[in-house]
Amino acid sequence: MKKDTHKQAMKEKENKKEPYSKVAERQQEKKMVNKIVLSIITILFLLLVVLGVVGYHYVTTSLEPLNASSKEEIQVEIPSGASSADISRILEKDKVIKSASVFSFYIKLNNETDFQAGYYLFSPSMTLDEIIHSLQEGGSPVAFDGTKILVQEGVTVEQIADSIEKSTDFTAAEFLKIVQDPKFLADLQTKYPELLSNAMDAKDTRYVLEGYLFPATYDFTEEMSLKEVVENMVKKTDEVMQEYYTAIQEKHLTVHEVMTLASLIEREGNTYEDRTKIASVFFNRLEAEMPLQSDISVLYALNKHKEVVTYKDLEVDSPYNLYKNTGYGPGPFDSPSQDSIKAVLNPAETNYLYFLADTKTGKVYFSRTYTEHQELIDEYITE
Questions:
Q1: From CA 311, how far away is CA 379, in angstroms rounded?
Q2: Helix, strand, coil share (%) of the chain residues, nearest 5
């Protein structure tokens, strides 16, 4: 009996020690957890500090020239319709800037707009403001790599002249002098009578060869004369038009009329389907003896680039102003592509008299009446 009592006392003693042991163990675990949490917080804090420093350094260096000492010139193409984000990615890809995201944010922060398509010569030594200013001034419609010249669709004789001056030893004035040389023009007409006879007979043209310098890539060597450069462009136009001379006669049109409408369509529509519909609008208006009312004609009459054509602009006194004058006008307004030429010869069958291009989306809306047209303007243009 005494032995049992002693065992029970020992067991009770052990039971009294157990709670103390568990408390100590929990306290030890708590200390360990606190240490781990503190370590994690410290590591996270240090990571945030490091990321902040790295991020700050990345942003500040991205706002500076990529290479301030660089003398390299990089030719960059900004396509028509490119957004600011698209332009930023192109500049980063071509190694003109360090960060597309920083450049894009900088543009938005400073509310910079009105960037223009074309070919540009940028240097990694340029500041972001210099790059932005250049993009707003406008690039060249012609690319040059030392052996080839690329003439883009929709460019004018004067734009080609400016690009020739930037890319070669010839000046714009020399180019314009050649394309207006009566003897040279007469020689070209003799060589390409089907192409140029109508153009030579046209009245009040600014440049006889406007619209006849085909958009394409041309070989260029230092030995070539300006006359050879120009003739190669005219020759290319004649080669393309060989396919269409018969159709032009069958439709009782002249080459000059086709090239004129094609030059307007080139700048008014982006897709071939839209261009065929725009061609139908122009033919419907011509048949109804209505003015074509193309903003492209007004801009050519003003001889300047503008984002928005005003009511005052529509009053410009020029035979090229197809708001004030009916018919085709003196002649082409730029160099049209083959697609635009085909659209003139294959217009869609519609009774549309109006069209409206949404410059934000590139979509073209067509209407039969002025009321419908005005409703589209209120919906897509008026803010």
A1: 19
A2: 55, 10, 35
The DSSP bridge pattern shows strands 142-144 and 354-357 to be: unpaired
142: left (phi over 0), alpha (psi -120 to 50) or beta: beta
- 74-139 CATH, one of 1.10.287.1080, 1.10.533.10, 3.30.1490.480, 2.60.40.1880: 3.30.1490.480
- What residues pair up with 150 in beta bridges, in sequence order? 143, 217
| Contact partners, residue 177, CB within 8 Å, separation at least 6 | none
Number of C-beta neighbours around residue 309 at 10 A? 17
Q: State the Cα–Cα distance between residues 223 and 147, nearest whole angstrom.
A: 11
74 beta partners: 122
CB atoms within 10 A of CB 100: 18
Closest CA to 229 of 241, 240, 238, 217: 217
**169 DSSP 8-state letter:** S
Going from the first residue of the chain to its last (383 residues), give the mean pLDDT of each consecutive group of 10, the final group possibly shorter.
Answer: 54 53 69 75 78 69 83 84 89 91 89 87 89 86 68 91 83 95 96 95 95 88 87 95 95 96 92 94 96 94 84 92 95 95 96 85 87 84 59
Q: Confirm if 339 and 354 have CB atoms less than 8 A apart.
A: no
Tokens 């018969």 -> residue: 246
Site of tokens 């029970």: 8
Class of residue 350 by CB neighbours under 10 A (exposed 0-12, middle 13-18, buried 19+): middle
- pLDDT of res. 119: 86
Domain with CATH 3.30.1490.480 in the chain: 74-139
Task: Provide the whole-model pTM.
Answer: 0.64
Structure confidence at residue 244 (pLDDT) = 96
Contact 160, 230 (CB under 8 A): no
Strand-pair category, 142-144 with 118-122: unpaired
Q: State how far the Cα of 100 lies from the Cα of 34, in Å rounded to an integer.
A: 43
Residue 3's identity, in one-letter code, is: K
Question: Which pairs with CB-CB distance under 8 Å and at least 24 residues apart come from 194-197?
Answer: 194/238, 194/241, 194/245, 194/255, 195/234, 195/237, 195/238, 195/241, 195/255, 196/234, 197/255
